[in-house]
Each structure stands twice: as C-alpha cells, then as structure tokens.
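Bench log, entry 3. Co-assembly request; chain sequences pasted below exactly as received.
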Amino acid sequence: MSAYVIAIDGGGTSCRAALADRHGRVVGRGKRGSANIFTTSDAIGKNIVAAAGEALKDAGLDVARLSEIPAFLGLAGINVGERQQELAKALPFADTRFVHDGLIALQGALGDEDGVMAILGTGSVYVSRSNGALRNVGGWGFAIGDQASGAVIGRTLLQQTLLAHDGIREHTPLSRAVMARFDDDPEAMVEFAQQSARPADYGALAPLIFEHDGKGDLIARDILLDAVRDITMALDTVVFKGCDRLCLLGGLAQEYARRLAPRHRAILKEPQGDALSGAVQLALRAFAHEMAGEERR
Amino acid sequence: MSAYVIAIDGGGTSCRAALADRHGRVVGRGKRGSANIFTTSDAIGKNIVAAAGEALKDAGLDVARLSEIPAFLGLAGINVGERQQELAKALPFADTRFVHDGLIALQGALGDEDGVMAILGTGSVYVSRSNGALRNVGGWGFAIGDQASGAVIGRTLLQQTLLAHDGIREHTPLSRAVMARFDDDPEAMVEFAQQSARPADYGALAPLIFEHDGKGDLIARDILLDAVRDITMALDTVVFKGCDRLCLLGGLAQEYARRLAPRHRAILKEPQGDALSGAVQLALRAFAHEMAGEERR
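Structure output for the full assembly:
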C-alpha cells in the first residue's frame, strides 16, 4: 500500500523520474544519466535509483521510503527479455513493472487516442495504436537496428569521414570538421569507435549533420536522405488507414519533422505530454489496487 | 642471434605461425584463433604465443626457445597505434616487429612486383605498390570501416532481417533462414548482436548471403550490390595508371572476384603466395642482421 507511485522514463541519454500522488499530481522530480538496457545492468540500476531518490528528496520525503513505493519504468531496449529479471532484482522498489520506453511515450503523446508515435533520438522506435491495439516497430537498438537514430547517423558520419580520409569519397566541410574533432588522426577516431563509444557518444555527432545539411554539405545530404528513407519506410508500415495523428518525439524530432514525406507531414500533431507524463498515467493504472488500498486505510 | 625467424599472419578469424630458417625454408607451422588487435590484448597474445609454440614443436624444437627467436607479425587492426606497445610487452620473442596484415598479404601476393592487393575476409583492406611506394586504404575495422567485409555484410543481413520481421521490408528465403537460426526470436538475435557477437561471428553469416544471391534472393542481392559498389569505389582509389596486377585474398575473394567491374576483372591475377609466405619474406629482411650474425658464428 502506498500513497505514491514512481514513474521512470529511461532513454538512451538520460533517466528521468517522477514521484506522483494518487491523483497523478507530480510532487517530485529527478534526473540522471542513461538507463538504456544495453549499458551495464549495474549502471542502469544506479541511475534509476539515483533519479528516483532525487524525486523523493525533491518532494521532501526520506529516500529510504523507495522500498515502500511501486515503480513503473519505461526503458529503452527493454524488448530484450532476460535482462528485465536481472534488473528487477537489483532495484529496491515495493513493486517493479517494465515496459518499452515507446509505450510510455505513446501514452504521453496520445493519451488514450488512436494514432502513431515515433521516437527519434539516440535510438528510434515506432508505435501505433489503432482501436486500442498496439503495434511496435523498430527499437531494436544500435548494433543491428535503430535506423535514422542519432547514434546510427553519427556512426555513419564517422564511416563516411574515414572514406573521405582514404580518398574514396570527397572531403566536405562536415567530414573535415569531424576529422578536426579527432585532431585529424583517423586512428584516434577508430580507437574511439572500437573501444569507448556508446550510442549516446555517436548520437552527440548528429546535430553537426543537420547543421551542415542546411549548408548543402554532400555527406550530410546523403546521410539524411538515407535516414529519411528509413523513417518513411517505417512510418508507412505503422500508419494505419484513417490515422490522423502522428507525433514525433526525441531530440531529432523537429529536424526530421521538416523532412518528412507530405503524407506524413499532413498528420503531424503536437504531443499532449512527454514520456514521463505517460509513465505517470500508466503507473496509476498499473498500481490502482495498491493506491486504492492506501485510500481505504 | 638466431638461426630461425617466426612469421605470424594474424587475421580476424585465425592466427597462423611459421618457423623459417635462414634460407626462408618453413620448418614448422602452427595455427590458433583470431589475432585481431581489437579482441582483447590477452587473447591476442595467447593465440600468437600458442601458434608460434606449435610451430616450434612442429619443427622438433623446445618451446622455451621462443625467447631466442625474433618474430615478424602481420596483424589485422594494427593501424591503431597504442595497442602495439601493450602487445609487444606481452610477447616473449627475442625481438618483435609489427605491420598491418595488409603488408604481409601484399608481399605474399605480389612478391616484389607493383600492383594492388585487396583482402576481403572478416575485414577488408586495400594496398597498392607503385614504383615501390605503398598506399593503404581501408582496414579500419568493423565498428566504422571494413565495408564489404564478411563481418559488415553479416551485420547488414541481421539489420535487414529485423526490418523484414517488423514488416518494413518483405521477407525472403534468406531472411527466413536467418530468423530460423535464432529460433524465430528477434530478441535472441538482438541479444547476440549486442552482447556476444564478434566480427568473426557476423562474418560466419556471409556464405549464406552468397548462396542465396545465386538463387535471386532480393535481400542478398541488395546487400551484395552495395558491397560491390563499396569495393569498386575503393579499388578505383588504389588502382594506379598502368596497374596490371590485382590480387584478391581472404575468404570472400572468389565470390567477389566474379562480381567485380570489368576493368578490375581484366587485371585479376592469382596471388604468388599467401600472407604467411609474405610474412616469412619480410621477416628474413627485417632480421637479416641477426640471421647474418648467426651465420658468422
């Protein structure tokens, strides 16, 4: 029984927590680094607990009460099953439920309406809701998925820059800017990619691509034409007949929105709220019983 | 001073060693797993020492004599500087010299002739020699290089298979065969890719692509058209004016040779020898002084 729920939005670049009361009012907030399931379980757990603890402190509650409060988590990469159990064991909450971060984002963006939502940030994922039925596409992570995401286009930028360094394609202002970031040393770039780069590190290169695309850079153009093709193919898979509501979320949403095909741009809507607000809505439903119990006490 | 040299060919899938006498005659051979510089230094070192030790045993010599014999190593990924020093310290040889595996392959394929050599195996790299001057292109490794390599096309195959699973593109016999390898479980595929897959594991999927391309599979076709475009662009960068000798090496050499542009197919030649024979040639030159000393003794 608890008077509160914890809601977590764990994406590729940050982990945000909200403490909400039984009316869905957010009474405390916290924020930490990435809670992507593919960073190590230890790091995820630490970031989640730290963000949740911060939300309790923000509300003037003792952090030790984490163990009395149920938590509802939307996490990037949660598609991949086994790690959920590992993680649930590592977390201190009274009860722990996981969903893919796409679902909390959908709830935040559309409320209970039908429509389509795409997250285009460090990763990429698409979710549709049609007559209440959900369909999930993408969200498979950086290694073999997440087309058009910041991490994937950042990696492509390094690939294209190495090709320019080798003389296989022409250098452009963008590829020269990337070389400069690595002191014009391709070995430093490869060392970064092979040894230390996480998706968010590649994703940090994405703004540079959009910036240079605006100036007609040919490497930026090629990368973004491919990325928009990938987004268009994914949207054509999830946008159902009669769908009149498409919300784009994530750090690259605005840049990609301007580049969408006309049929997709025509149904673009502002999201109702963010993913964390969606997690709060879902937390209240998931733990309605516990909250009602509290009410009766 | 030593009567012998050790030559090592360390590629992405295996590490081969030869013990040669002062006349370049190979008197012992050994073979172990990958010596790619991007596997951990510990594993590389162990594989190199084990392969070299096997070559000594094969020649009827005591393995303890490793420390009396100089070694010449051609290693995949050796472009990347700092790790060479780490590795050199970890190895027991009397003297240790490293070059990129492209250079020993070039020497093996072309002897002292001018020409171009491409290794198309787990990784990909191109080397040209024109009037004795060397030029190296590619060979930057799996993370942001190695276009058209077995590892890269294997990874692309998993990406395309996930797109088919999501309904973003049509399934083909090839993508269904890949799904079957993972018990039709996309999460198992993602877990493989994110957690355990090394370049050689992705590369193990490459033969499946060529096999299905022969049957007109559309996913195989698209992957190989892109790969051949990448090879063609790289070859056009390194094939110099008047070049009449192009050797392809590596596990995918034969399959790609049939698919090359006519201008490149026209100058294809059989390699004179393999990379290990090139390493023996270069070892004799590098350690000529030590060997001559031995002769004088």
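Chain A has 13 helices and nine strands. Strands of chain A lie at 4-10, 15-21, 26-32, 71-75, 96-100, 115-120, 124-130, 133-138, 246-249.
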